[in-house]
Amino acid sequence: MKKVSFTLQLSLRFVFRLALMAFCLTMLTVSCGKKSGSTPTPPPPVPPVVPTPYPSINTNATTAKEIIEDMSAGFNLGNVFDNGINSSAPVPNKQIIDLYYSAGIRHVRIPVTWMDVFTTKLADADGNINFTLTRFLELKEIVDYALAKKMYVVLNTHHEHWLKDHYDGSAAYDTKFARLWTGIATHFRDYPKQLLFDVLNEPEGAMGQWSGTGYPLPNNAQALELTRKINKVGYDAIRATGGGNTTRVIMVEPNGQGNQGMIEEVYPSKASLPGGGGDVYLAIQVHTYDPWAFCGQTGSNAAFPGSASIESAIKKVGDHSRLLDVPVNYGEFGVGRQTNTAERNSDIVRGYYKIFKVTCKAEKMSFTAWDDRGWFGLIANSGSAFAFTNNIVPFMMAQ
After folding, report:
1. What is the 3-state secondary structure (H, E, C) of 149-172?
2. Is the residue at 221 inside a domain?
3. 3-state secondary structure string, 336-368?
4. pLDDT at 44 over 70
5. Which domain covers residue 327, as residue numbers?
6. Within a domain: 393
């Protein structure tokens, strides 16, 4: 047999190697892919993360029970129209409202001092309001803004020491206070039901307070009677203006700085309430900074009384609310620190706010955290925008 040339041998070896490589690639493709004749399926796309939107308010809510529960979480626009420490200009306050709204907050309480504190007052010594005053126009613009966002708004009379420090139940004081509320209520008479009135913030002084000389204690019989009377004076003045105020939700507070523990003393029965207990548009607002050794600006985290103690106090108010058949709003609560401010950036403090939220919702109460941008501050301005501090509000609002 004739030998194959060396050149031919090389050519045959090259062709063989090419054929072998092609075979291996074919087998690799078949083994790694789908069955013959099918098209490889790419992995499904990862769905985008869509945050659960916070619910809007129920615009069909009408009675105090319905509205108070629907209000849910809120905040106080503190140290603005009550004492002027923070600016009353609309732009920054609208930014604050936007920030809270984005966190799921659906109501704002706007404390307003009308006849006291400021050099230029919203109302004169007789209770006549100057509706052209710049501060009132700013207030109105902010109220309108919050309502347009479909939030509830609470307006009150706040640091009225001309009344609280000296009230004696006489016609002189009743007439001035009635005139003040007649002016407020008449001006906002045609506003939607999402605007609520809080007759008098934290009755104290002559109406009873826990400390200080010259004033009775809150459980003093006369102090209790004066508290009921001044609340009724404001309530009657509002209802008398008619229009939307006939069915607007009105809140009244107990004395002792609106203390939660005084609700049973000031209003022991339905008959003791304004309207005799038959007004389905009446609510009670209470406040708490109990225990002060923990909650107060001079307090300490070491004095935290435990979750059960916080829950128990709220549930006790809930029991009395059901007895009266009148809903309750916790209009102020919080933890402040004047010096040891680092304590507020803690799980104990964040947990307190969360306990408050969970318990109030279970009791069908609304709750309004106190924010003064100071000792009890929940937000701060970084220079370009407002942001929550110490993660208190986001933690409270988390599901």
Report:
1. CCCEEEEECCCCHHHHCCCCCCHH
2. yes
3. CCCCCHHHHCCHHHHHHHHHHHHHHHHCCCEEE
4. no
5. 64-397
6. yes
